[in-house]
Amino acid sequence: MxxxxxxxxxxxxxxxxxxxxxxxxxxxxxxxxxxxxxREVLAILNDSTVEGEEEWVMALRDAGR
Length: 65
Fold this sequence. Notes:
Elements: H1 2-12, H2 15-27, H3 29-33, H4 38-46, H5 53-62
Helix pairs in contact: 1-2, 2-5
C-alpha cells in the first residue's frame, strides 16, 4: 500500500499526504468510537492495518475534495 501512496504523491504532490491521513482516520473511525482515553486512541493507531487497498485509495482520492 505504501508504494501506491508513493506513486500518488509523486504525481499529485504534498497535499496527498494530508488526504492520506484523512483517509486513514476515516477507515479507523468506528474503532475510535469505543476509545475512552488518549492511550486507547494511540493503541488503535499503532495497531492499525488498512483492509482493502483499493477502497482506501478511493477514500484517499475523495478526501479533502
